[in-house]
Amino acid sequence: MTSLFDTYQLGNLKLPNRLVMAPMTRARASADGIPTASTATYYAQRATAGLIVSEGVQPSLQGQSNPNTPGLHSDEQVTAWRPVTDAVHTNGGRIFAQLMHAGRVGHPETVGYHPVAPSAIALNGQLFTGAKGMLPAPVPRALSTSEVKGEVQVFADAGRRTIDAGFDGIELHGANGYLIQQFLSSGANQRNDIYGGSVTGRIRFAVEAAEATADAIGADRVGIRLSPGGTVWDTIEEDVPQLYGALIDALAPLGLAYIHVLATTEDDVLIALRKAWPGAFIINPGGQIGPKPTDQAIGEHWLNQGADLVGYGRAYLANPDLVERFRTGAPLREADTATFYQGGDTGYLDYTSHQY
What would the pLDDT profile of 270-328 be if each residue is shown by its tens digit? Predict the structure, then answer.
């Protein structure tokens, strides 16, 4: 029986265990998207994970969603990330950067750019903009066909910068209502060109982004995160098994490092996707944000269902030594929700090992 503590060969990386630290927004970067010395400490503390996937990193200023999130679209940002990746590697870890383009989940008050999206359809909700607090989501500007191709290139360019910054690879954020999933969504995407309409049209942007980044840095350094049927940020998806079955079929020949799937749909659909995907399959059992972190038993259950690796998000916030807590049966701490995004080192660097 496969265990969370078994090793796993992921491309050129030998992972010491099957736990993946999932990406989580922490909003601790500077106003211009520069990670700090505290960022390096935070990730280094969690380097015993089989693989770390960083918080969402904007591949362009246009793609930024929240204030104080880090970027990978300038030389200064690349330079600032190197101490972070060096710290993780020095502590024996492996780290991918999650490239997250907000699309319509952005506001001009945050970065001065009007958001772009597949179609000019606003999400039904409010966005945090920083100094002006919560404001209604604006109607985004619909991308032209040529501009869509430009956004594909944005991911490839950021992928190259990611490797220059010392990351082991990238994860395309195709989940949780951001740009890639907006193209998949029948609610956010009402285009009538090659990037909309049919299932083939709606999956095209995701496939082209994966192709472009694989060409730029190597397919074994590229993963993609998906949330089939997920409803975050007013996402609507129809024919989920057909949509994601087609997407898996189109991605499979690329030889990507992995797909990282949130449990946002029925188990039988997830298991069917696992069976259809020929490579490494990461499951994040927590799905959309819920009341409890995922525990060890659920992770072991999904390994028995065929997953190769298990993503843990909230459990890693307060338990930087999560692997050892699971291994020894030590109790898990609960994270203080008030400090998730408040900035500073409180609730960021002050969660210690179970040995202290």
Answer: 999 999 999 999 999 987 655 567 899 999 999 999 999 999 999 999 999 999 999 99
Cα separation, 323 vs 319, whole angstroms: 9
Determine contact, residues 81/72, Cβ cutoff 8 Å: yes
Active site residue 178: yes
Q: Are 320 and 331 in contact (CB under 8 A)?
A: no
Q: How confident is the model at residue 138 (pLDDT cuts 50, 70, 90)?
A: very high
- State the Cα–Cα distance between residues 170 and 172, nearest whole angstrom: 6
Given the residues 42, 43, 178, 195, the one annotated as active site: 178
* Number of other residues whose CB lies within 10 A of the CB of residue 324: 14
Residue 51's closest CA among 341, 305, 322?
A: 322
Q: Which residues contact 179 (CB under 8 A, 6 or more apart)?
A: 63, 101, 102, 103, 104, 117, 151, 205
Token pair of 215 as six digits = 């060409």
| Distance from C-alpha of 300 to C-alpha of 59, rounded to nearest angstrom | 34
How many Å apart are CA 194 and CA 328, to the nearest integer?
Answer: 53
Give the separation between CA 158 and CA 178, rounded to whole angstroms: 17
Domain map (residue ranges) of the chain: 8-339
In the block, tokens 């690796």 appear at 309
Give the CA angle between residues 242, 248, 250 to the nearest 5°: 100
**pLDDT at residue 116 in the model:** 98
First to last CA, the chain: 32
How many angstroms separate the Cα of 178 from the Cα of each of 100, 212, 221, 335?
7, 18, 21, 25
The token pair at 147 is 């501009």
- CA separation for the pair 353, 356 (Å, rounded): 6
Which residue is listed with tokens 């919560």?
Answer: 134
Is the domain defined by 8-339 classed in CATH 3.20.20.70? yes
Partnered with residue 15 across adjacent β-strands are 8
Among the listed residues 283, 182, 269, the one whose alpha carbon sits nearest the alpha carbon of residue 225: 283
Phi, psi of 124 (to 5 degrees): -90, 95
Three-state SS letters, 280-322: EEEEECCCCCCCCCCCHHHHHHHHHCCCCEEEECHHHHHCCCH
